[in-house]
Write a structure and sequence with these properties.
single chain; about 200 residues; Immunoglobulin-like; 3-stranded antiparallel sheet; 4 helices; 7 strands; about 25% strand; elongated; NudC_fam
């Protein structure tokens, strides 16, 4: 006989997975509608803009500022592919762009490499006017995390864990440590009253 008081988590999990999938699909559709595609690691971001094969480098106006970007046809005539403010600053000296021929239509693409100033945060979008992605869902490729030295890697992993816990309204690793210490202390001192202790 099934227990009506049984834990209802399987249904909740399925519902969350469905919502996650819907959210992911909506996010993918929003990103696909942009005139460019982009990828990122914790340290940099790359933008690809497909353009007609007839376009030459001298036809383009590509401006990379510390706080923003503009990629358009020169002289204000025609296409503006991306323009706006970055969510976080970049190193302009380390950021580059190239115009490359591709085998995919329309024939060429503008490739832009952005070097993030803060190598510890994910960008929710390339420009603040574009739709956001949910950075809490990013799972870094382990190879990229593997490139970091042990200390930096554990720092990044801790930050990402804390970020996820915050999103879920759960305690961060520091708070968990404090709670664990308090719990151990309580076990060792059962005679003390901890009911009024505030965490945080």
């Amino acid at each position: 006989m099934s227990d009506p008081e049984a834990d209802p988590t399987p249904a909740a999990t399925t519902e969350r997975e469905t919502l996650d999938r819907e959210h992911k699909a909506r996010e993918a559709a929003e990103q696909a509608a942009l005139p460019y595609s982009w990828t990122q690691t914790i340290a940099d971001a790359d933008i690809s803009i497909p353009v007609p094969a007839t376009i030459k480098g001298r036809d383009l106006e590509v401006v990379l500022r510390k706080g923003g970007i503009k990629v358009a046809m020169k002289g204000g005539k025609g296409e503006v592919w991306v323009e706006g403010d970055f969510p976080h600053p970049i190193h302009t000296d380390e950021s580059t762009w190239t115009l490359e021929t591709t085998s995919k239509p329309p024939g060429k693409e503008i490739s832009i490499h952005l070097d993030k100033v803060n190598k510890m945060e994910w960008w929710p979008h390339i420009v603040t006017s574009a739709p956001k992605i949910d950075v809490s869902k990013i799972t870094p490729e382990s190879s990229k995390l593997g490139d970091l030295d042990g200390e930096t890697r554990s720092m990044v992993e801790k930050m990402m864990y804390d970020q996820r816990q915050k999103e879920l309204g759960k305690p961060t690793s520091e708070e968990e440590k404090k709670m664990e210490m308090l719990r151990k202390f309580q076990e060792q001192h059962p005679e003390m009253d901890f009911s009024n202790v505030k965490m945080g």
